[in-house]
Amino acid sequence: MNVSWTADPPEATEADTVVVGLFEGEEPRADAGGRVPDPVGELLSSGEAQRSFKALALTHAEGKRWLTVGLGARKDFTPERARVAAALARERTREISTRVLCWEVPAAGGGDDASAAVAGALVEGTILADYSFDLHKSKSAKAGREGDSKPKHLDGLIVSGGGPVESAVADAAIVAAAVNAARDLQNRPGNDLTPTALADYARALGEEIDGLQVEVEGRAGIEGLGMGAFTAVAQGSEQEPALIVLRYEGGEAKGPLLGFVGKAVTFDSGGISLKPGPKMAEMKFDMSGGAAVVEAVAAIARLRLPVKLLAVVGATENLPDGRAVKPGDIVTAKNGKTIEINNTDAEGRLVLADCLCHAVSLGAERIVDLATLTGAVIIALGSTYAGLMSNDEDLTEHLTAAGERTGEILWRLPLHPEYDELVAGKYADLDNAPEARKAGTIMGASFLQNFVSETPWAHLDIAGSAWDLGRAYVGKGASGYGVRLLVELARSYSAE
């Protein structure tokens, strides 16, 4: 999709469909002569166009389709509402075979920054809603769809007006494309996206993007680094695991060396502690944290943000063959901590433990890890919020603010010494799955805290948000959750 900005009014663009947002109690944009475009005025005067949030109305005039979208009250309008409005508009324009769509940026109030945020959100909402995944559809099935007269994707998106928002539009297009690329990774099945395939994908990004360096270690390298916890998870699969390290430093980089750590279990059967059969196919999504980290780093590098960045992704399968780790086994992590593995389905924290240690050893000064770690976070927060646990107030504030700006919102859960007691092992230093079924999400973070030393760190449990998020712009399936959040976090440090 070609994304562009213009100062020209929508009717002067090549778009076949124009989208105009309507605020309650306000008239839409008038032309130089003070006239509301006839198609919009007619929809309003007929009562067909409504200003209430999400209301849609369509007409044809002047060689174009005109679609109005209700934005509700101006005081309630946010970039997140803009994303939703854009997604609803995209769904309606898909039905009418739109090829080039033009959004007239609604006046957001609050100056240039607010206009830029809204323009960027409109781009994100449109691109994310335009997504589909058919990599593994047969040629005949694709041909059948292509025979449909309705185009599957937009050819172009034009953003009209809104003040000096051209850079915001371009940046949003880069970030939204990265989110959709992460969704592609998530949606690929386990027999396609193996740990090696993910590593190869990261290497290709390193070759494509200036300033992005990628290194990969396989099974021998992981063992050689003393990563006994990661090794234990990987030993049950014939697929080679991959420790993926990405580095980027923008010109005149500011702030601390940021460390992003992602869990990338490309298929999680639960190991010997086998998961139930229903919905096990969804466990291809257990690499969602790693996908978000890889694509966030790629977007940051493409945006040339002036930050110092290090990312560590641990990729493996978790399968129950004759070599698989057994309940009751004891392993030693990279930092020397010993761990009782009392449930092999609590494998993500084992992979993350060694990856966190590695990030610390490589000099990360602020660390954020993303993982589909616990079902308990879904019970606690549903899909609306991802769980946030942290040992540092400043990092928490940065993340929370970034979440508010991107719509990838976070809810902080507490850490406390009493939770640390729950993860203490009987025969080793730590227990990866204590029998007491208390505070499951928090106990996962309490376990991980043992592997970050004194480094400021935050753990994001995205198990409820990584797929089937249900928001208008991502709907069902992979959501790419975390990409926009991490990019915005990096941007916030670069601006200090």
Task: Write up this protein.
The protein is α/β, with parallel strands linked by helices. It has two domains: 2-164, Leucine Aminopeptidase, subunit E, domain 1; 178-494, 3-Layer(aba) Sandwich (Aminopeptidase). It has 15 helices and 17 strands. Helix 2 (79-95) packs parallel to helix 3 (112-129) and helix 9 crosses helix 15 (483-494). It starts with a strand and ends with a helix.
Notable traits:
15 helices, 2 domains, alpha/beta, single chain, 496 residues, 22% strand, Aminopeptidase, six-stranded mixed sheet, eight-stranded mixed sheet, Leucine Aminopeptidase, subunit E, domain 1
How are the elements arranged and paired?
Blueprint lengths: L1 E5 L10 E7 L14 H9 L9 E6 L2 E9 L6 H17 L4 E5 L7 H18 L9 H8 L9 E5 L5 H22 L7 H14 L3 E6 L1 H6 L3 H7 L7 E8 L4 E15 L19 H16 L3 E12 L10 E4 L5 E4 L6 H14 L4 E6 L4 H6 L4 E5 L2 H14 L3 E3 L4 H6 L7 E2 L8 H9 L8 E5 L21 H12 L2
Parallel strand pairs: 1-6, 2-4, 2-5, 5-6, 9-10, 9-13, 12-16, 13-17, 14-15
Antiparallel strand pairs: 3-4, 7-8, 8-10, 11-12, 14-17
Helix pairs in contact: 2-3, 3-5, 5-9, 8-10, 9-15, 10-14, 12-15
Quick one: overall form? elongated
With strands numbered from the N-terminus, the spatial order across the biggest sheet is 7-8-10-9-13-17-14-15
Radius of gyration: 24 Å
Overall tally of domains: 2
Q: Which sheet architecture does the biggest sheet show?
A: 8 strands, mixed
Q: Just give the CATH class of the largest domain.
A: Alpha Beta
| Number of helices, where a helix is a run of at least 4 consecutive DSSP H or I residues | 15
Can you count the beta strands?
Answer: 17
What is the fold named in CATH at topology level of the largest domain?
Aminopeptidase
Average pLDDT over all residues: 95
| First-to-last CA distance | 33 Å
CATH superfamily of the largest domain: Zn peptidases
Question: In the CATH hierarchy, what is the architecture of the largest domain at level 2?
Answer: 3-Layer(aba) Sandwich
Q: Tell me the structural class.
A: alpha/beta
Low-confidence stretches: none
Please bin the fraction of helical residues.
25-40%
Strand content: 15-25%
